[in-house]
Amino acid sequence: MTNTHLFFNTSIGKQKPNSIRNKEQVCPFCQREQLTNIIAEEGPIIWLENKYPVLENAHQTVLIETDKCNSELSQYDDKHLVSLITFGLDKWLSMEKSDKYKSVIFFKNHGPHSGGSIAHPHMQIVGLYDIVYQHKVQVDDFVGELIDQHGDTEFSLSNKPRIGFYEFNVKLGEKRDIAAFAKYIQMATKYILRDFPFTCNSYNLFFYHFENEIYAKIVPRYVTSPLFIGFFLPQVPNNIMWMVKDIQSKYVQL
């Protein structure tokens, strides 16, 4: 049976530490000697079972990105950035290939408006036993105005956003240029946190394996539009081409 909704265990949820909202909270990911149920490691990158599996009928894992609590994906040097994205893609796709799940989701929350609870940089890889996330995805979600391209790896700004307003897409080309893929993801996070036309301190990063293609979507986070909440009506801003040119002028050598 395939379900359409995830079920959240509130009794586990209320036990979760929140170091984003509570600055006094001890960071559980900094106490590395106390981490348990580690699945794999590569340098400072650790993949482990989620200690607070709030989603029912799911296998939740956490990917700790770095041993530096105050760092962030937008700040990583090229070597660590590529290692992290390569490691994450490998573990995500290996869970898919295991055939234990209907689908596997891979995502990152950053900042107080992202829906996350731990400030220490991390991602999540979650195997869903009875939900196929691709049923809620369509090709148009990744259509947009091209910002830059390296080989067949593309970086664009959505003109048909899933939620509305600004959504950045990165499509990994057939040549599997992970360095370009990772760099475009980082470029989007840098722009959102440093040069966005509106002050923004939060974003989500989502990965999709859809119709034999791999995509990343980077979404700046604010309060979600009531038109989307109430009616599922995404809004498209009228300055998309201005933003494309702004990013090109700041980050892309044309």
Short précis:
The protein has 254 residues and is α+β, with helices and mostly antiparallel strands.
Provide key terms for this protein.
ten-stranded antiparallel sheet, 254 residues, 5 helices, alpha+beta
Mean pLDDT: 94
Question: How many E strands?
Answer: 10
In spatial order, strands of the major sheet run 1-2-3-5-4-9-10-8-7-6
Share of residues in strands: 25-35%
User: Structural class, from helix and strand content?
Assistant: alpha+beta
Order of H and E elements: HEEEHEEEEEHEEHH
Q: How would you sum up the major sheet?
A: 10 strands, antiparallel
Give the fraction of residues assigned to helices: 10-25%
Label the overall shape.
Answer: globular
Domain DUF4931: 8-130, 136-251
InterPro entries: DUF4931, DUF4931_C, HIT-like_sf
Protein name: DUF4931 domain-containing protein
